[in-house]
Design goal:
Strand order of the largest sheet of chain A: 9-8-7-10-11-12
Oligomer: heterodimer
Shape of chain B: globular
Strand order of the largest sheet of chain B: 7-8-9-10
Strand content of chain A: 15-25%
Structural class of chain A: alpha/beta
Distance between the termini of chain A: 86 Å
Number of helices of chain B: 17
Mean pLDDT of chain B: 89
Shape of chain A: flat
Helix content of chain A: 25-40%
Structural class of chain B: alpha/beta
Low-confidence stretches of chain A: 1-12, 94-111, 383-392
Low-confidence stretches of chain B: none
Largest sheet of chain A: 6 strands, mixed
Radius of gyration of chain A: 31 Å
Strand content of chain B: 5-15%
């Protein structure tokens, strides 16, 4: 006997309400994103993003495997097939035949299709900086001020977009407390947020990216340095609205570049670091008043500097260090070089004077994140220690 | 228009009854294709949430979009049984599917494996699974999403490890060894016992703790849920829920070829004998039938897999031609795929069907092997043991609570993949909360062991 129920002509809408498959797929995607996030250094090292200007990074990922016990992969496997084959025939590996959909729950999801996940650069920056403390750019109150709209007070009239619903409901509750039969809402209940213009002390910061592009810096070295700069710049920009980033490159001379050109720059010739430092000093004096502006320097080099430039470079660097809140040095050593390079000695000398500076080494692309982490945790500690005394 | 197949249903049923089919009532329901896909992925219409289903779901959707496979119906055995039909099926499709469903319903009411499973409560598996899903939703409310997901990671990764022979409802092991049967009570022993200096109590009166487990335990889900030292009761319930669903899946899995073959035989025969079905509907339905039971896809000459519909259908046709419907019904009642294929897949049939055995090198060519019907049958059945999972059993629980799992490589002659085993052990230690050790063999057949320690994680 068979009973029937339901209506076959119209499929009930109940099934459309939600999809368990989609729900679990979303969870799967979320897990993939978490997994990818743990591999941040590799994604960040994918330096293509710097050049192609897109705001996304594409990462190929496999579907996540829910592990089960399985046998070690064998070089040989046996199976049963069907068709016009005779013993001894060789069939091409491509001819895998049709897959009949079986039901039930067998089946391992080994080697599913590969997905290409797209991550927004902004998201990656978000992840990266979540764990880092940003340098507390110390506000220095100077003459320059900027006016800003601030929210202040409420009024019964205003633009609909600034309606404060919470406050309006409170008014309605108050009114109805006196008269229970009153209507739920009347125009008098509505409250709107008001804006006024306030003058704010300006917070200015200038960050110098100084890059050694001499012949000893290989293409790979420059790429590492630029990747480092790219993420630092992206991170700083996200956090600060008024931030000047100055791009300088040097060989035996130094030039200032626009951001776009800086990431494309290549050079040749010897290394005279003092020219770069001099250029930075010049720009600071020319454009940034160190009394109301925080200056940061990040210098990237392979550590080779002309020996006869030692004294000159030290003086210039010291000059910068005295004017700035922090001077950092990233040594790019993709080859095997000794750790006591000429340039690292320069920075050590400045640090020993008690000036805020530090250094870090990038050996391969996985170190880029480490370097960003290094500078920004250190710097924030220094800055917050310092803030106790100089705070606004 | 679409409702017409229901018009054929009563007469189709009368015809089926007159041919000896015997089934419990079936509730038919047409559902959207997306829901059909979900049923195929989850195995049940409502089931617990887990991300691994999501991955399979997308994979299935891709397959559907590329037109690799199409799902007409899924039947859940029970009393009443439930048949879900894809809403996109045409009239002819559904006439065929209705006949097909009657075949499945007959099979699941009479086959021994299904009957045993239904005696243990699987006739209400749809309701049980839905209530498991509901319970797990409550657990998520109470204990948080990640906590529940970790337990499901462990339980579902072991879902193939049940022991069918010991059944769904099990008692804990005896805690003490049962006393040895007392030695023969002859007069010598009784006089001996009266001698000075002999213990008054015989040795066996002091009770001895039984080793845990007393024998290698295949039912990992039950063992962990019962003996895990510090598992919360809601975690044990999740393990038992997964286990109950696995017990339900086993007959479906272990009779796939027989069951699909039986349903295909009967839909073909019912349609052939149903003179009340209009000619064009019949032709469309028969075309659909031949698509379902064709050995290889239309554009291919050779497939490296066997279509279970085709294999089962061909065997049943032969059995009924040789011995009649009654002999076939007896086989249907008593066999599973193992005995069905071993007893009925003869060399002649295999040759007629063009079945061949092949050997495949990793990334290399596929070589067709010499004919050998015994080997061919075993290769076909090889993946069917134990849901196709390697045999892993609990060997012992040490006094410090360490769980020792042992992989039995006697049949496979191969060890487990160490990296994935490590991952599975990581899931398991989360609920066992003590170290877990797995023993298996390495590439050179030497014993190796993998250790997962929750303290180190």
């Amino acid at each position: 006997m068979t009973t029937t129920s339901g209506d076959s002509t119209t499929v009930s809408g109940w099934y459309e309400l939600f999809s368990r498959g989609s729900r679990d797929w979303l969870r799967h995607s979320e897990k993939i994103r978490e997994a990818v996030r743990d591999h941040l250094p590799q994604i960040v090292a994918d330096s293509d993003i710097i050049n192609d200007g897109s705001r996304t990074v594409r990462v190929p990922v496999r579907m996540l495997e829910h592990y089960r016990f399985r046998l070690r992969a064998d070089s040989e496997s046996q199976g049963v097939g069907q068709g016009t084959a005779k013993p001894g025939d060789l069939l091409g590996p491509a001819n895998t035949g049709n897959k009949q959909g079986g039901k039930g729950n067998g089946g391992t999801e080994r080697g599913g299709p590969e997905l290409l996940l797209e991550f927004k650069v902004d998201d990656i920056i978000e992840w990266m900086w979540e764990e880092l403390k940003l340098p507390n750019l110390q506000p220095r109150i100077g003459q320059s001020e900027e006016a800003e709209w601030k929210r202040e007070g409420w009024d019964r009239r205003g633009a609909r977009s600034r309606l404060d619903r919470r406050r309006s409901v409170k008014e309605s509750v108050k009114r109805r407390a006196l008269d229970a039969s009153a209507p739920a809402f009347v125009d008098e209940d509505l409250r709107y947020r008001q804006l006024t213009r306030r003058r704010q002390p300006a917070v200015r910061a200038a960050v110098f990216f100084l890059l050694d592009v001499s012949a000893s810096m290989t293409e790979a070295d420059r790429q590492l340095a630029k990747t480092f700069y790219f993420w630092v710049a992206a991170g700083l920009r996200r956090e600060y609205r008024t931030l000047d980033i100055v791009f300088v490159a040097h060989t035996t001379e130094a030039w200032e570049f626009s951001e776009a050109d800086f990431f494309k720059v290549a050079g040749s010739g010897g290394t005279v670091a003092s020219t770069g430092f001099h250029k930075v000093n010049e720009i600071i004096k020319e454009r940034f008043d160190s009394s109301n502006c925080n200056v940061y320097l990040f210098y990237a080099s392979d550590g080779d500097n002309a020996v006869d430039d030692r004294e000159q470079a030290r003086l210039e660097l010291e000059g910068i260090a005295r004017l700035s809140r922090y001077a950092g040095y990233v040594e790019i050593s993709s080859g095997l070089r000794n750790s006591h390079s000429e340039t690292s000695k320069l920075f050590d000398a400045v640090t020993s004077l008690g000036l805020p500076s530090g250094r870090c080494t990038i050996r391969d692309s996985n170190d880029v994140v480490t370097a960003v982490r290094h500078f920004f945790t250190l710097e924030s500690q220094a800055a917050s220690a310092d803030a106790a005394g100089v705070g606004p | 228009m679409k409702a017409d197949w229901r018009g054929h249903l009563p007469r189709l049923e009368d015809l089926a009854r007159s041919l000896g089919l015997d089934w419990s009532p079936v509730i038919f329901e047409a559902v959207p294709d997306s829901f059909m896909t979900e049923i195929a992925v989850y195995g049940l219409p409502v089931r617990m949430p887990h991300w691994s289903f999501g991955a399979r779901y997308i994979y299935q959707l891709l397959q559907r979009h590329m037109g690799y496979s199409r799902l007409f119906e899924v039947v859940f055995p029970g009393n009443p049984g439930r048949a879900y039909l894809a809403a996109s099926n045409g009239l002819a499709d559904n006439t065929l599917v209705a006949a097909h469903v009657l075949g499945h319903a007959d099979f699941s009411k009479n086959n021994l494996l299904f009957r045993r499973s239904q005696d243990q409560g699987s006739e209400h598996i749809i309701e049980h699974a839905a209530s498991h899903a509901r319970q797990i939703e409550c657990d998520i409310e109470a204990h948080g999403f990640t906590a529940v997901e970790k337990v499901l990671d462990a339980a579902l990764s072991l879902e193939q490890y049940i022991d069918l022979d010991r059944g769904l409802r099990r008692e804990r092991y005896e805690e003490y060894l049962s006393p040895k049967p007392s030695p023969v009570d002859d007069s010598f022993r009784s006089r001996f016992a009266t001698l000075d200096g002999e213990d008054k109590l015989p040795l066996h009166a002091r009770r001895q703790r039984a080793p845990l487990p007393p024998h290698p335990e295949k039912d990992l889900l039950w063992f962990i849920a019962t003996y895990a030292p510090e598992m919360e009761s809601w975690e044990r319930d999740i393990f038992l829920a997964v286990r109950e669903e696995s017990f339900y899946f086993y007959p479906v899995y272990a009779t796939q070829t027989m069951n699909e073959g039986w349903a295909s035989y009967w839909h073909a025969r019912l349609l052939r004998e149903a003179d009340f079905i209009p000619q064009d509907t019949y032709l469309d339905a028969i075309k659909c039938h031949s698509d379902v039971v064709r050995p290889v896809a239309a554009e291919e000459q050779i497939a490296l897999s066997v279509n279970p519909y085709h294999l089962g259908f061909t065997l049943w046709e032969e059995i009924i031609k040789q011995g009649g419907v009654n002999a076939a019904r007896q086989i249907m009642r008593e066999d599973d795929d193992f005995s069905f294929l071993r007893n009925n897949l003869t060399r002649e049939l295999a040759t007629d069907m063009g079945l061949f055995r092949y050997k495949k090198q990793a990334n290399g060519p596929v070589k067709v092997l010499a004919e050998d019907i015994d080997e061919l049958r075993e290769t076909l059945l090889h993946d069917k043991y134990n849901f196709g999972a390697p045999r892993v059993a609990v060997a012992e629980v040490r006094s410090d609570g360490t769980l020792v799992l042992e992989h039995n490589s006697d049949i496979d002659k191969r060890g487990l993949d160490i990296e994935t085993a490590r991952k599975v052990l990581a899931y398991v230690t989360h609920v066992w909360r003590r170290p877990v050790i797995l023993r298996t063999i390495d590439a050179s057949a030497k014993p190796v062991q993998v250790l997962a320690d929750p303290a180190a994680a």
